[in-house]
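Fig. S4 source data, part A: sequence.
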Amino acid sequence: MKKLINKPGDEVKEMIEGMALAFPQIVRKDPKWNNLYRRESPIPGKVSLVSGGGSGHEPAHGGYVGKGMLDAACAGETFTSPTVPQIFDAIKAVASDAGVLVIIKNFAGDVMNFQTAAKMARAQGIKTDWVIVNDDVAIPEPAKRRGIAGTVFVHKCAGAAAEELLPLEEVKRVAQKVIDNVRSMSVALTPCVVPKAGKPTFELGPDEMEVGIGIHGEKGVERRKLMTANEIAELLCSRIIEDLKLDKGEEVAVIVQGNGGTPYMEKFIVYRRVHQFLTEKGIKIAVAWVGEFMTSLEMAGTSVTLLRVDEELKRYLNAPAETIAIHTPGPVTS
């Protein structure tokens, strides 16, 4: 194992410290926990957004703390949910008079811990609600689908709605609207190595790939012979279009990302075919993000996310944001 760390087990604490030192104008670190808070939270009259999960998915989740997105991100140990006390303290730290919306990815540990913390906050009189993201179409049953890269679109749109000082019920409606209209799917070309384990999470032959992986280094739902970038883009888009029942003339926002270890050359090659494929289907692209958004350490591969959009969601996607990972100056006007 070759990693730029000091001691296995210290990587999360030291990463959070580094983020806070590098971007003090955007975030501040919790003195006790591996939590990052928006510099000026809580903001009176604005719903606060809290999210998080295991580390190893950077820039998620601390990279999305700041204006127009999250007010708090809780970082668990690598691929491990944050604890209930950690999440509870984060909710209390950023709670405003308008309340708190907790954005949870659909993994058993995250759902249990974040919901428990949210219920504890309610019991202390903090107006708190939550949504659960389940965008991974590799899993047939929607209730069992994992929350993966589509979570970032939830952060962005709900964050923009909160900036408009909408009430908690409306911010939750926007978040749920994104969840209902977003789907993702991913492939891995290599596994990753969790620092404490020191060995790959699974084995792949030189001519193999895993289809339908999650974000915790786990195997996919299917193993295939290695395909070309164009073939992979078509496979992922086809599954998503079918599940979303996208029709000709509809508009989407697109994320094409690597899984942590994919060069930008390859990401743009994949996006090229995604763009062509959607255009051939008569599906319009309103917003496109290419980069790293919800990764799995150094895993090579790619994922595609499609979000069906209308005028409301396009406005929120283009609304101003200033975080470590996302900078949107706002819509371009002539």
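Fig. S4 source data, part B ends here. The CA atoms of residues 156 and 224 lie 34 Å apart.
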